[in-house]
Amino acid sequence: MKTKILLSALLLLCGMVNAQNLKSPDGKLECDYGVENGRPFYSLKKNGVTIIDKSFLGFVFTPNAAEPYTFKKTVDNSDVDFYSGFEQKGVKNSSFKETWKPVWGEESEILNSYNEATVTFTQKTSGKSFDVCFRLFDDGLGFRYEFPVQKNFAYFVVKHELTEFKLSSDNTAWWIPGDYDSQEYQYTECKVSEIQKNFYKQVRDNASQTFFSENGVQTPLLMKTADGKNFILIHEAALVDYSCMHLEFIPKDNKFISHLTPDALGNACYMQTPCKTPWRTITVTDNAAGILSSRLTLNLNEPCAYEDVSWIKPVKYVGVWWEMITNKSSWSYTDEFSSVRLGATDFKTAKPNGRHGANNQNVKKYIDFAAKNGFDAVLVEGWNIGWEDWFGFSKDEVFDFVTPYPDFDVKMLNDYAHSKGVKIIMHHETSSSIRNYERQMDTAFKFMQHFGYSAVKTGYVGNIVPRGEHHYGQWLVNHYLYNLKKAAEYKICVNGHEAVRPTGLCRTYPNLIGNESAAGTEYESFGGNNIEHTCILPFTRLIGGPMDYTPGIFEMDLSKVAPDNTSHVNSTLAGQLALYVTMYSPLQMAADLVENYERFPDAFQFIKDVAVDWQKSLYLEADPMRFVTIARKAKNSENWFLGSKTGLYDRVSSVKLDFLDADKQYVATIYADAPNADYKTNPQSYKITKGLVNSKTVLNLKTVKGGGYAVSLIPANANDLKSLKKLK
């Protein structure tokens, strides 16, 4: 019996390399890595407690793609195993620490400090190897696969990536379904073991529903451990030349496994050595606020690629957009339809529908409003021909991006805007016809440059052309980056809608000043977002980069905007103001109609005052789906702004203002839900309070579900000290 036990132990030891260990700079996080029974693995602990249990690494390659091309016929149709039979060959350790300055952001300086181990794993049968680079920060782990140049291993096709994330408990998760083409869902909160049961509960009717599994979810995936002591966020960073990663939950093993968006052939990624994957990231913090303050995703991206960034500016804008979304006006100039593409000459004789929003008179109204209220720009959609039959027909040739409708005078409007110190933001809806856009991209950007446009909003609505590709596959990921780099050649900033979810690339390419990539305010016109929606997005979607959420809706009953629209915006007016602080973006829109802002000039003042670029951000209160309270100090200013957004429940927010300078008095202007406010029945009931505060002041403000408050904190002058009373 003793001999058998000893033999079993020896066999176990022979199958496993003793795990090696990497520690974070503060020593609280530990990453173990090694090989067990021929399979590379890693695990993650915090203060000795397991966060991610032993999780295996590796790939499945498409048959024959891992070998050099030959004319020799083969009958081998089996998948290529690149996950077993490995041994660890070596490790290189290093440390790094820097402070870098983003072009724009939530703070003016970011600390980047980590310990690193690059581990080589070699497959004994094939002789091929890959490295795994582990970077351990104080708030999480990033790791990626790296494939060096090696003999007989130049080209390969990834069919599956087998990265595991084995959980240590039945965590609470906040998630949306794993869809290859849409992130425009409402979030579900449940135990990970209940994901399949809840899968279709929040699926929206207009989502593409190209699910790969009823247990499949998208990243960023937020979780809380069963004991409530840690929050975990799984995502990816620096998604370049690779397919977007989703996660599939395996209930019997209590683990997630990576699932890459496939192409039309069912493959995920086409690779050539030397190459590397995006970083797989696991952020671990004591509380939800720590998730918001983490800069792990940005730190795993490369430094800024541009020497000159003087042309990249944060923007506050208005636009001819909401009236189209609500169906008050239309994108198209005429209601006539032709199966043949309509040309510029056709529109000279076409009958106008009388509802076209991007007309000279209407655009000038928005330009005047922007100039009067200190906004930088006006977004105009529906200005160019092609909107009559742009969607749903899988057309290759759709828009040309340079030919305006008859009632949109490009030169006159740009001259008019520039004379008032305002720019117009270009709109490029591609209808997901990628070939069409790439053929015309240079021409479109030269057109923009000629007329003084410095920013473009791109759109990718509908199924991809070429057909069979997905929004989040490698082919489209490469297109989005191509568009970004091409725009930079013309000193143009990009706000990408319907693009792949952000992974921190805005550090490297800061002309990516915004993305949609989630259900934004437009869904308030399509039936309404859930009231908790804006209290989960900061913990999930915004981790990878800013969102063009388009807040600031003051009229919640949309039947008053467009008679045939029965939707209701599920927020109070004060809650909409809070979003300018809690939903960070260097590109902030006042999205409502001009006339609705003119009805509430005192509340609109906050939108005019609030900054869009920040020196410092503090995350004061946070609980996913319940509430989030953030204070931010404007860049190159002593002004602070505070926003608190409430989700599922009424609450009293208690906030200390101890972040203010101790030797100063500040004028606080508080825009809060009134006592009788209700997001459904009385959303425009708000109260504005003004008075003096200092670093010892504590604000106790009641907010209703779906509501919130916003506060401006401006250093007081002599007149303020005489005329205003101290707030209690």
Walkthrough of the structure:
The structure is a single chain. By secondary structure, the chain is an alpha+beta fold. The protein has a domain at 20-299: Beta-galactosidase, Chain A, domain 5 (Distorted Sandwich). The strands form six sheets. Strands 7, 8, 9, 10, 13, 14, 16, 17, 21 and 22 form a ten-stranded antiparallel sheet that branches. Strand 30 (614-623) and strand 31 (627-634) form a beta hairpin. Helix 8 (434-451) runs parallel beside helix 9 (474-489). It is globular.
The CATH class label of the domain at 20-299 is Mainly Beta
Strand content: 25-35%
Report the total helices. 13
Give the terminus-to-terminus CA distance. Answer: 78 Å
Summary of the model, kept short:
By secondary structure, the protein is an alpha+beta fold.
Topology (SSEs and partners):
Blueprint lengths: L1 H13 L5 E4 L5 E8 L2 E8 L2 E8 L2 E3 L18 E3 L3 E15 L9 E14 L5 E9 L2 E8 L7 E7 L2 E4 L4 E4 L12 E4 L24 E3 L2 E4 L6 E7 L7 E6 L4 E6 L8 E4 L2 E2 L2 E7 L2 H6 L2 H4 L15 E6 L1 H4 L20 H4 L10 H14 L3 E4 L29 H10 L3 E7 L4 H18 L3 E5 L14 H16 L3 E4 L15 E4 L57 H10 L4 E3 L4 H6 L1 H9 L4 E10 L3 E8 L5 E7 L4 E6 L9 E8 L12 E8 L4 E6 L4 E8 L2 H6 L5
Overview features:
728 residues, eight-stranded antiparallel beta sheet, ten-stranded antiparallel beta sheet, Beta-galactosidase, Chain A, domain 5, alpha+beta, 13 helices
